[in-house]
């Protein structure tokens, strides 16, 4: 890749959100019926939590939205001007904060702006090493397919080589996601999708099944994989069996093997590939498929905040893949970015940059 391309080769799409993050939130979990290490869309009963956070807690404001976190992680690894991010925001100060964070971390913001709407927000409730996410999408769920047809956005789409779609986007934007993925897959470009949360394969199963044929790299965690399996009648299957089953689903671009990457927190990361042409994934044919990668251990003192760690892994993995690194190197970079993320407050990364390659 050149150091300063005219258009970014990595195109990310999702729901831009500003995270409102608080610690020691056990009472909030109980009051609002939230679970640790879970992610949900806010219902009416959850809406008071945002004012309560500001009123009664010490809030840390962090640029968020899962796909936007991944975009910033990818930008950290890649040379300048290599990542663009698309999503919908309001015309407000929250959107300005998101743009500033993207500018600082090397991501081009290509937002669709909805005048008079509020930018989406996420209540992030930290308890110990766990986090619970409760999101109000606001302007983010008003993303319109027509935004992709604007000349400046179409130029990004035409020139990108790697595409990343956040699973949360499927709750409202399946038509736009399909528009992007079908065209990219048809041109032999790489399409990555993150499952994002267990409720995506549970309650947006139809949308997920529509998109999967065009997906070259699927990323998720063990809870999301188990939720997918439950919906497919595979509830008793192991993570390895689930990953292999997804890897071998029908695929639009059959010339490129599908990779399924399942993170398992601090335990290990598992990668499965479709059975054909393992060498194309830079996996030695004699290595196991699926292959398990241990995660370097951190002490409790090194873990500050787990919010966004999975997104950081995904961004690091995708960036290394875009640089033509081997699968082993992609996983290693993903692990390094995830661990960098958990060592700081919020999905943020160290500056000045340190090498992760």
From TrEMBL:
Catalytic activity: adenosine + ATP = AMP + ADP + H(+)
A Pfam family the protein falls into: PfkB
Enzyme class label: transferase
Carbohydrate kinase PfkB domain mapped to chain residues: 28-352
An example Gene Ontology CC term for this record: nucleus
Cofactor: Mg(2+)
Stretches that traverse the bilayer: none
Active site, per annotation: 311 (proton acceptor)
UniProt entry keywords in alphabetical sequence: ATP-binding, Kinase, Magnesium, Nucleotide-binding, Purine salvage, Transferase
Superkingdom of this protein's organism: Eukaryota
Role noted for this protein: ATP dependent phosphorylation of adenosine and other related nucleoside analogs to monophosphate derivatives.
UniProt name for this protein: Adenosine kinase
Annotated organism of origin: Filobasidium floriforme
């Amino acid at each position: 890749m050149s150091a300063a391309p005219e258009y970014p080769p990595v195109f990310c799409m999702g729901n831009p959100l500003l995270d409102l993050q608080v610690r020691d939130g056990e009472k909030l979990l109980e009051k609002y019926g939230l679970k640790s290490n879970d992610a949900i869309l806010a219902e009416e009963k959850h809406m008071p939590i945002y004012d309560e956070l500001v009123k009664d807690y010490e809030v840390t404001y962090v640029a968020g939205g899962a796909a936007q976190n991944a975009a910033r992680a990818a930008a950290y690894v890649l040379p300048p001007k290599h990542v663009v991010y698309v999503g919908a925001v309001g015309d407000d100060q929250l959107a300005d904060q998101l743009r500033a964070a993207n500018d600082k971390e090397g991501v081009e913001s290509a937002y669709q702006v909805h005048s008079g709407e509020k930018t989406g927000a996420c209540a992030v409730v930290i308890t110990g090493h766990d986090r619970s996410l409760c999101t109000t999408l606001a302007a983010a769920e008003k993303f319109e397919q027509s935004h992709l047809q604007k000349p400046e956005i179409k130029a990004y789409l035409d020139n990108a080589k790697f595409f990343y779609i956040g699973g949360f986007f499927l709750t409202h934007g399946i038509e736009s996601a399909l528009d992007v993925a079908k065209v990219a897959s048809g041109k032999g470009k790489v399409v990555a999708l993150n499952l994002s949360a267990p409720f995506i394969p549970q309650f947006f199963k139809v949308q997920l099944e529509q998109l999967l044929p065009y997906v070259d790299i699927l990323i998720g965690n063990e809870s999301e994989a188990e939720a997918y399996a439950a919906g497919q009648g595979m509830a008793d299957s192991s993570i390895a069996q689930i990953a292999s089953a997804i890897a071998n689903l029908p695929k639009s671009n059959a010339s490129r093997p599908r990779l399924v990457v399942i993170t398992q927190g601090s335990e290990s990361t598992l990668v499965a590939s479709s059975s054909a042409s393992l060498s194309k994934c830079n996996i030695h044919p004699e290595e196991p498929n699926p292959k398990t990668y241990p995660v370097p251990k951190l002490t409790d003192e090194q873990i500050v905040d787990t919010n966004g760690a999975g997104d950081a892994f995904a961004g690091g993995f995708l960036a290394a893949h875009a640089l033509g690194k081997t699968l082993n190197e992609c996983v290693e970079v993903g692990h390094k970015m995830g661990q960098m993320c958990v060592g700081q407050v919020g999905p943020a990364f160290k500056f000045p940059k340190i090498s992760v390659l």
